[in-house]
Amino acid sequence: MTNLTRASVLLAHGSSDPHWLEPFGQLLQQIRSGLQENHARVELAYMELAEPELCQQIRWLVQEGYRHIDVLPLFFAAGRHLRKGVPAMLEALQAELLAAGLVVSIELHSPVGLEPEVAAAIRQVVVRQLSR
């Protein structure tokens, strides 16, 4: 059974440089191809300097009927953007949606860089590079 109300948004910082953006599009495609057919929808958004911007991506998903949005930051750590800027953006968006009569749950998760597997992968790459 497909979950018709839940979607996830991968959040990257953003850049006007298409070379910087390219790996994120590739990552999105790899994630989608690795998911079960019945998994919730996954999209990509940026904080700034690139489209789609986070709030716009969420608005589009809400227009399509999604009512629970998980925001998964593709960041190494939780800096000022993730501690203050993004929560304020999401709070304002939820208020906007509620004023329009839409109850939407938006959950901001911890940055993926804080996951132990990411730290282990970085350690392996650095050790390999230093061992050459």
TrEMBL record:
UniProt entry keywords in alphabetical sequence: Lyase, Metal-binding
UniProt entry tagged with the keyword Cytoplasm: no
UniProt cross-references to Pfam families, sorted A to Z: CbiX
Keyword GTP-binding belongs to the record: no
A molecular function (GO) term: lyase activity
Protein name in UniProt: Cobalamin biosynthesis protein CbiX
Species assigned in the record: Venatoribacter cucullus
